Please model this.
Amino acid sequence: MNEALKKDFAAIVGQENVMESEADRFSYAYDAAVLEPVMPALVVRPESREALGRVVKLANENGLPLCVRGSGTNLSGGTIPREGGVVVLTNALNNILEINEADLYAVVEPGVITAKFAAAVAARGLFYPPDPGSQAVSTMGGNVAENAGGLRGLKYGVTKDYVMGVDFFDVDGEIVKSGSRTVKCVSGLNLHGLMVGSEGTLGVFEKITLKLVPPPRSQKALMAIFDNVNSASEAVAAIIAAKIVPATLEFMDNFTIRTVEDFAHAGLPVDANALLLIEVDGHAGQVAEEAEQVEAICRKLGARGIHVAKDAAERNKVWEARRAALSALARVCPTTVLEDATVPRSKIPAMMQALGDIAVKYRLKIGTFGHAGDGNLHPTILTDRRNKEEWKRVEDAIDEIFDVALGLGGTLSGEHGIGIAKSKYMEKETSRATILFSRRLKKALDPKGILNPGKIIGE
Model:
């Protein structure tokens, strides 16, 4: 990138918001995926939405690859830039523009931190359910770009279920308005639906309109302790088959339990082979009835103990321990590969059996936890990428994990996105025509291919 072009970017965002030293640029060369870093030519930090649009236009005029980045918690390489390209940081665009209590919606800039937004909404007596594990640092723009999920996805859905509208910049820096603040809106194409999960490949978010809901009036959290992983898996399927939809229904295997307990000291039973962490919510009578049904199902399927949280503090301690699963596992080995195998809920027992077999076959440490209630498991491989022989086994194991998930009618990603880490598998899940259709769509909207090139559908 020549000096004149750097000055053009500085004129838009201010010299203090241009990062061009090697050390600064390297900080934005990678994300949370286990992939090689790629150095961008420049990093810029617009402080206004108007400046953001001008940055997009300038990049397109000069054919510069553009990667928009929130907090970089992406787990599939979606925020790894292109060499010679520009990284655009959204962390200065962090204003909650509106929380409307009468009409139950909010409008935010893309750099708003997820947990801060949820807390601001809760302070108004409302509820924003999506709660990705990275919520303490992840941004709302990143959540929409990846269609983030979380622990409450089983009952409340994922980010796409709360996006009412997205205003975004096209490659010419022009504002495209989509969606509405109304509950119903069928004016024109469903462009905001197209933007959810697009991973920055079709437009750059300017602001996002989100649905809010009333909070549940009552909650009850239970921990079901199993000596057998298959029994716990069968209990998950049985709870759903009984037409009970808990707010959360989480799974942890023994390796994860022991690792998390060593890290969080939450009082988890380290001798258990599996735990189900379950929360039901709603009206008090419904909560009591469903908690009783869930407990009966778990006991019938072999739970040796059921622990009910006695108060909010105990409940929160257990859930914080669950949220710490990845952090705890990441301490064990130099390299942590967190996968996102998702299958129909009735196939959870088969997927768990397969993960155990794969760990043995490839001689790997795999700790499994995740949102079992919606079929979204996180097999986490603990390894050392510097050991080339072991890393080859890891890569083969990942291939087999995805093959098994797809064979069970599942998907490559429940909530982590495709990025560049999984793009090579996309045709297996969809079809060649699907990939070509998607590429034609992107070509029409982004003729020069500047918007996060290579992500999801390759090139």
About this structure: The mean pLDDT is 95.
